[in-house]
Amino acid sequence: MLSSTARAPVHPGELLLSLGLIALGSFVIFETGSIAEIQGYAKIGPRLFPYVVGAGLTLCGALLAWHALSGGWRHVPLDQEGHDAPDWPAFAIISAGIILHMVVIGWAGFIIASTLLFVLIARGFGSRRPVRDAVIAILLSIIVFFVFTLALGLSLPKGPFGGG
Amino acid sequence: MDTFSALMSGFAVALTLKNLMWGFLGVTLGTAIGVLPGVGPALTIALLLPATASLDPTGALIMFAGIYYGAMYGGSTTSILLNTPGESATIVTALEGNLMAKRGRAGPALATSAIGSFVAGTIATILLTVMAPIVVEFALKFGPAEYFAVMVLAFTTVSAVLGASAARGLASLFFGLAIGLIGLDSQTGQARFTLGIPELLDGIDVVVVAVGLFAVGETLYIATYLNRQVDKLEKMKGSIWMSRSDWKRSWKPWLRGTALGFPFGTIPAGGAEIPTFLSYAIEKKLSKYPEEFGKGAIEGVAGPEAANNASATGTLVPLLTLGLPTTATAAIILAAFQQWGLQPGPLLFETQPLLIWGLIASMYVGNVILLVLNLPLIGIWVKLLEIPRPMLYAGILIFATLGAYGLRNSWFDLALLYIIGVIGFLMRRYDIPVAPVLVGMILGPLAEQQFRRALAISQGDLSVFITQPISGTVFAITVVVLFGPPIWKRISARRQANR
Fold first, then answer.
1. pLDDT tens digits, residue range B128-169?
2. Which residue of chain A has the CA closest to B456?
3. Residue B161 CB neighbours (<10 A)
4. What is the ipTM of this complex?
5. Among B216, B391, B431, whose Cβ lies nearest the Cβ of A98?
6. pLDDT digits (tens, 9 = 90+) for A113-135
7. Which domain holds residue B404?
8. Phi and psi of B184, rounded to 5°?
9. Confidence band (pLDDT; 50, 70, 90) for A95?
10. DSSP assignment, residue A162?
């Protein structure tokens, strides 16, 4: 309550998230309609619960939207430093790392994909020594690969080095 | 079988060489990972779920229990030396503990937290041993309506009562419930919300959600908003042992902290936040050295640490006896049970007594291991804190992607992981609690099942939930818990205004 006084009357991020919740809730309600209702002896089929969940999401979204329009969300802690200066390049580099890993892992194998991921995340956190990062990454990925495949029996893609 | 002989047979399980080894591994791994800032017990257990699916459930669950309290302890080490309270439960420890470390008293702060954790953990485990059979006895009378009522109470307390805002907590809960809906309906086998994507027929795996929210979301948040801050790691100086006066000032707070923490853990009010804050306030009031509070008073570490640990063990009472998770970590442990087709609850005490009692007995052992392991190895834990941030988060992400991909070697799970990671990032940015998502997604399908069973028995009559005495009482409590605090606030605000 106290925290909301110092802030702008309408907080766009909060409003967007609230609208997102309403959209998600409406989508759940809409999709529930397409679930075939089998009226068993139970009387309650697979639709009721989804309707309740969809309605709950929509109501929460509406309440939060109203909060966002009337002075901002309630009881937001003040101690979140750095919110005014987000580092979007870092966000982008890390996202790129995760997406690249997803694309590459199937054919290049776990070790190469994880090495790329490691180097990009480290870069996103401001590391300026990609060669050192890559060496650490390769060592770590090899150890992890063998621990998880040999000792724990998980199957991971070997990539071109493993012969298949 | 009476409790004592059940516990003894549990010790026979827990003290086999193999299970001792699992416990040892769990405690070590849990502490090591718990020390790393930004990694908690929920994430650790979630990451290990796919890798343990083929293991014997007793051993794996003993390891998870070890990870659970190992990570709790590791987390307090971090907050004492680094003052980055990752988990809400260690905020208070960070308060006084970090100040003690700044004054060169890191050793005694770590010692009182380790010994306090041991004392609290052991007393809480004794209480768990005594209470569990009583609750089980009571819970055997539960039908579907009663289970549904208790689950709704848990949903309410986890989302609406804890945390800063009921609206945000409930939004998070419903989001979790919506995730839980995806997949085949457990009663009729119909596909729901799969959008024609075959990968979604099995539902979204809890590993993907937990790792997405805790690892990917946290990494994105720290990199975007907090990376410019520099953490200051306090040096370990002087003796790590407590002086005679430290002991004298610590033992009462340990006991009081335990007495506060355990009950708060057992009632479905999840989390150690409230008891740790209460313990801090009480110790400040009772201390002979109130002037030291705010400068590093040992009571302010001893009490909250004990409360934190006792409540962690207390959480296991509803989890094991009713199958009711009240924290994010408990929800993941429930998912671990489900991985082997086990459903915690009163019936599990009858069908798998050796597993349950072996697990409980292993907690006595685990607390001893924790105590023996921690103080001598403190040097290693401090080394872990010196890992530079880029390396740390890059490493975490390797394990995170491995956990998601290892489920079924599908890129689809990695795509989901990133999407949920971005959602976790937004939730962190806008102060939306994450635990209700996990509790909702794990407990939601079970609640729906009980709800529909209850209505099948009552022939669709919704009034069963209110007319059955136990279920009616629990629903009444839920209403009080949900609407009581805001009404109370309004009344006292009006009184203030009238004065």
1. 999 999 999 988 888 899 999 999 988 988 887 766 788 899
2. A42
3. 17
4. 0.90
5. B216
6. 999 999 999 999 988 889 999 99
7. 3-498
8. -80, 135
9. very high
10. G
DSSP state for residue A73 in the 8-state scheme: S
List C-alpha distances in Å: B399 to A144, B51, B73: 8, 11, 22
Q: Residue B99 half-sphere exposure, CB side, CA atoms within 13 Å?
A: 15
Length of chain B: 499
Total domains in chain B come to 1
Chain A residue with minimum CA distance to B177: A53
Collect contacts of B491-497 with beta carbons under 8 A, ≥24 apart. none
Residue B46 · residue B406 · CB < 8 Å = no
Who's near A134: CB < 8 A, 6+ residues apart?
Answer: A115, A118, A119
Least confident among B22-26, B182-186, B216-220, B273-277: B273-277
Is residue B392 a contact partner of residue A79, using CB atoms and an 8 Å limit?
Answer: no
In this complex, the residue of A38, A76, A148 whose CB is nearest that of residue B51 is A148
Question: Chain B interface, mutation test: which of A14, A22, A24, A53, most B Cβ atoms within 10 Å?
Answer: A53
CB B300, CB B284: distance < 8 Å: yes
Contact across the interface for B174 and A119, Cβ inside 8 Å = no
Query: How far apart are the C-alpha atoms of B215 and B47, rounded to whole Å?
Result: 10
- Measure in Å the smallest separation between the Cα of A9 and chain B Cα atoms: 16
CB neighbour burial string for A146-164, b if at least 16 within 10 angstroms, e if fewer:
eebbeeeebebbebeeeee
Quickly state the pLDDT bin for B422 (edges 50, 70, 90): very high
pTM for this entry = 0.89
Backbone phi and psi for residue B191, each to the nearest 5 degrees, phi listed first = -75, 135
Token readout for B308 is 């934190």
Contact of A60 with B173, CB cutoff 8 Å? no
- Cβ-in-10-Å burial (0-12, 13-18, 19+) of B194 comes to middle
| Residue whose token pair is 């991971």 | A156
State the Cα–Cα distance between residues B194 and A157, nearest whole angstrom. 27
Residue B163 φ/ψ region, left for φ over 0, alpha for ψ in the -120 to 50 degree band, beta for the rest: left
Residue A21's Cβ-count burial label (10 Å; 0-12, 13-18, 19+) is buried
CA of B458: which chain A residue's CA is closest?
A42
Contacts of A15 in chain B (CB under 8 A): none
Q: What is the 3-state secondary structure (H, E, C) of chain B?
A: CCHHHHHHHHHHHHCCHHHHHHHHHHHHHHHHHHHCCCCCHHHHHHHHHHHHCCCCHHHHHHHHHHHHHHHHHHHHHHHHHHCCCCCHHHHHHHHHHHHHHHCCCHHHHHHHHHHHHHHHHHHHHHHHHHHHHHHHHHHCCCCHHHHHHHHHHHHHHHHHHCCCCHHHHHHHHHHHHHHHHCEECCCCCCEECCCCCHHHHHCCCHHHHHHHHHHHHHHHHHHHHHCCCCCCCCCCCCCCCCCHHHHHHHHHHHHHHHHHHHHHHHCCCCCCHHHHHHHHHHHHHHCCCHHHCCCCCCHHHHHHHHHHHHHHHHCHHHHHHHCCCCCHHHHHHHHHHHHCCCCCCHHHHHHCHHHHHHHHHHHHHHHHHHHHHHCCCHHHHHHHHCCCHHHHHHHHHHHHHHHHHCCCCCHHHHHHHHHHHHHHHHHHHCCCCCHHHHHHHHHHHHHHHHHHHHHHHCCCCCCHHHHCHHHHHHHHHHHHHHHHHHHHHHHHHHHHHHC
